[in-house]
Specification:
This protein is α/β, with parallel strands linked by helices and about 160 residues long. The chain contains five helices and four strands; from the N terminus they run E-H-E-H-H-E-H-E-H. The protein is globular and about 40 Å long. The termini are close together.
């Protein structure tokens, strides 16, 4: 079982959308029984909340289902997950600060799997609905490439 954790700041915009996209791709490939997928935030702003309404809307527009309550990343996540994927460099730094020496886990930026030079998935929270559509497009592409990487690496 390969365990994946997507992480952003508050866990209501980018990371739950990434989780939903990844799960959808797994279903399409009949690989859902090979993975455990979750998302979390580095901050505690929204613990227990549903994803942002704009995240839910863009998910529905793309035939994705989101069943999620925001949570904060914990030190236990470093022993539970094989890969932690940060949405941006700021969150990556926050994750690495919490890591506390567990070097078995792979902590990466999701856009390392994107063909663009930009490393951060922009935070759409303070913008309009178009920002959420842009984030969906970025994540869809990067996650597709990440999934191809995993399939090759883990012979799936």
């Amino acid at each position: 079982m390969i365990k994946i954790l997507f992480v952003c700041l508050g866990n209501i915009c980018r990371s739950p959308l990434a989780e939903a996209i990844f799960n959808s791709k797994l279903e399409r490939l009949s690989l859902q029984d090979k993975f455990i997928v979750d998302s979390a935030g580095t901050a505690d702003y929204h613990i227990g909340e549903n994803p942002d309404a704009r995240t839910i809307k863009v998910a529905k527009l793309n035939n994705l289902q989101i069943i999620h309550k925001a949570r904060q990343i914990t030190t236990m996540d470093f022993s539970e997950f094989d890969y932690i994927l940060a949405m941006d460099r700021s969150n990556l730094e926050n994750i690495e600060t919490l890591q506390d020496g567990n070097n078995n886990i792979k902590i990466l930026l999701i856009r390392e799997f994107d063909k663009k030079k930009e490393l951060d998935v922009p935070d759409p929270y303070y913008g309009g609905k178009d920002g959420f559509k842009i984030v969906y497009s970025i994540l869809d592409s990067a996650i597709e490439n990440f999934l191809q990487f995993l399939r090759k690496k883990h012979n799936l």
